[in-house]
Amino acid sequence: MSSETSAVPVITIDGPTASGKGTIARLVAQALGWQVLDSGALYRLTALAVHEAGGDGSDAEQAARLARQLDIRFDGAQVFLRGRPVADDIRAEHIGELASRVAAWPAVRAALLERQREFRMPPGLVADGRDMGTVVFPDAPLKIFLDADVGIRAERRYKQLIEKGISVNMVDLLKDLRLRDQRDRGRAHAPLVAAHDAITVDSSRLGVESVVQQVLGLCRARGLAA
Ligand code: DC
After folding, report:
1. Assessment of whether the complete model's pTM goes beyond 0.85
2. With bands split at pLDDT 50, 70 and 90, how would you rate the model's confidence at 225?
3. DSSP 167
4. Whole-angstrom distance, CA of residue 29 vs CA of residue 8
5. How many Å lie between the centroid of ligand 1 and the Cα of residue 60?
6. Strand 35-38 and strand 125-129: pairing?
7. Phi, psi of 195, deg, nearest 5
8. Ligand 1 test: best mutation among 37, 91, 130, 143, most atoms within 8 Å of CB?
9. Ligand 1 binding pocket includes 17 (Cβ within 6 Å)
10. What confidence tens digit (pLDDT) does each residue in 18-27 have?
11. Which residue's CA is minimally distant from atom 20 of ligand 1?
C-alpha cells in the first residue's frame, strides 16, 4: 500500500450474512460521494467461476487460480464476469453458499486481497464484508461491526427473496444462515470477527435510515465528513 492510498479514508462495515451491510455501505457512500466496495461480490464471482468450471469448492488450487484470473468489471449495480452481466446470478442462494466455502481457502483470500485494496480511491471508500477492518483495511479510521439477531436477518432475507419472486422456506433459510455464520466465524483464516477498534451497531431493532444516520454521525465525529 503506498502512503498516497493509505491517506484515502476508508469506512469498513463488517458483519454476518444479511445484516444489511451492503445497503448501509451503499447509502453511506452515496451520502459522502465516496466509492463503495462490496467485497462479498468478489467471493461470489469466484464462486460463480468455480461453479461454471464444474467445481464444488473443494479444490483450493482451482478456486485460487480462478480467483487470480477473474475477469470482472463493476458498473453501478451491474457486474460483469468475462463481459457477461451476472448481478442476479451471483445473488443466487447456492452461489452464496459456495462463496462461503471458497472464502475459507487462504489462497483464495490472498488472490483477492490486492484487488480489494485497488478500490481505495479518493475521495474515500466504504467497504463492506467480513474482514475489511481486520485484514484488508486495518488502518481504516472508522470501523463498524453491523450485527443483527439471526431470526431477524432470516426474516429480512425471506422478504427480499419473496419480493424477487423466489420461493423459499423459512426453516431452510434459517438453517442456511446459521451454517454460513458458523463457517464465516469459525474459519482459521480471516474469520468474521469485530476488529478490536470497531464500533458494534446492532440493527435488529433499527431501520435502515437510523443506521445510516448513526454511521454518518460517527463519520462527522471523526472528522471524515462535514
Ligand atoms: O456478503 P456476502 O453474503 O455477499 O458474502 C458472500 C460470502 O463471501 C460470505 O459467506 C463469506 C464470504 N466473504 C468473506 O469471506 N469475506 C469478505 N470480505 C466478504 C465475503
Report:
1. yes
2. confident
3. -
4. 14
5. 16
6. parallel
7. -60, 155
8. 130
9. yes
10. 899 999 999 9
11. 40
- Most ligand 1 atoms within 8 A of CB, residue of 21, 36, 42, 100 to mutate: 100
Q: Is the pLDDT of residue 34 over 70?
A: yes
Residue listed under C-alpha cell 423466489: 166
pLDDT digits (tens, 9 = 90+) for 156-192: 989 988 888 888 899 999 998 999 899 889 888 888 9
Could you tell me the distance, in angstroms and rounded to a whole number, from the CA of residue 104 to the centre of ligand 1? 10
- CA dist., res. 226 & res. 224, Å (int): 7
For domain 9-213, give the CATH superfamily.
Answer: P-loop containing nucleotide triphosphate hydrolases (3.40.50.300)
**Alpha-carbon distance values, 77 to 36, 38, 66, 188 (Å):** 11, 11, 23, 32
Ligand 1: atom nearest CA of 184 is 11
Beta bridge partners of 145: 14, 200
What are the cell numbers at 176? 442456511
Of 31, 22, 139, whose CA–CA distance to 77 is shortest? Answer: 22
